[in-house]
Amino acid sequence: MKDILEVNNLNKSYSLNKSEEQAVLRNIDLRIPEGQFVSVMGASGSGKSTLLYTISGMDRMTSGQVRFDQEDISSLPDKTLAALRRNKMGFIFQQIHLLKNLTLLDNIVLSEYLAGRESRKAINRRARELMSEMGIAELEDRDVTQASGGQLQRVGICRALMNRPKMIFGDEPTGALNSKATSEIMALLGRINRSGTTILLVTHDVKVAARTERVLLMEDGRIVGEQHLGKYEQDRNDDAKLREEKLSSWLLQMGV
Ligand SMILES: Nc1ncnc2c1ncn2[C@@H]1O[C@H](COP(=O)(O)OP(=O)(O)O)[C@@H](O)[C@H]1O
Ligand SMILES: [Mg+2]
Questions:
Q1: What would you measure as the largest C-alpha separation in the chain, in angstroms?
Q2: Which atom of ligand 1 is nearest the CA belonging to 51?
Q3: 49 C-beta closer than 6 A to ligand 1
């Protein structure tokens, strides 16, 4: 399988003041094959979010190279980079930001309307299909205040899928959800991944990471280890508990 993401010697630092720099990402090398479901764990402040933002082109790196889908994004101008994100990437966050005066359906279609790639009719049709796949078809006319956290996260996933992204990036997407909603969201992401979309999630939650295929561990701006669990096959009654135990004992061994 070819790599959708190839990161070479990525460094990111912030200047604290004129003479002091804080290194947040240090010499990161990473390859992600197309179709993989990856999670990133690590203590708070270890650089997980910064890694996600720099490899997805939301934030600039200090040095190094990132190739996404065969294209070197390190040197792309801002506008080209923004277009690439719009065309090929999807993002989900812990808190979804929705416009209060719009229905959930309108929130999902908005950026595609603005992109103007397809007719509004086709865009609405796709949004309704996605809402139905995510089990929230009946919510299309509701507004933000009329849905639960888990339902809003499904709205976020629908919105992220509108452009048929090659890769989805998630920063703690289940961080604000209870365990039932978390498990439902992970089942949906698993399905999306099985249909071919590469996914990279930042998470604190062993239960979440245990449902991904490959777990990276960050410490102080470096990837210090990784664990390959293989794809989680929920439909084949794959043993989630066993995966969690395996991951927990590895984390313990890694000193987490
Ligand atoms: N915009 C910024 N300016 C300065 N320092 C930052 C900025 N963003 C993050 N940092 C620092 O980078 C480090 C890693 O942050 P982050 O990537 O958010 O970690 P994590 O997601 O693992 O909690 C932290 O020490 C944080 O304080
Ligand atoms: Mg973070």
A1: 57
A2: 17
A3: yes
Question: Ligand 1 centroid vs 57 CA: distance in angstroms?
Answer: 16
Each residue's pLDDT, cut to its tens digit, for the chain (256 residues) gives 799 999 999 999 998 888 899 999 999 999 999 999 999 999 999 999 999 999 999 999 999 999 999 999 998 999 999 999 999 999 999 998 999 999 999 999 999 999 899 999 999 999 999 999 999 999 999 999 999 999 999 999 999 999 999 999 999 999 999 999 999 999 999 999 999 999 999 999 999 999 999 999 999 999 999 999 999 987 666 688 999 999 999 999 999 9
Q: How far is the CA of 11 from the centre of ligand 1 (A)?
A: 13
SS3 letters across 209-224: HCCCCEEEEEECCEEE
**Which ligand is the nearest neighbour of the Cα of 50?**
1
Q: Where are the domains of the chain?
A: 3-253
Atom of ligand 1 nearest to the CA of 46: 22
Quickly name the fold that domain 3-253 has. Rossmann fold (3.40.50)
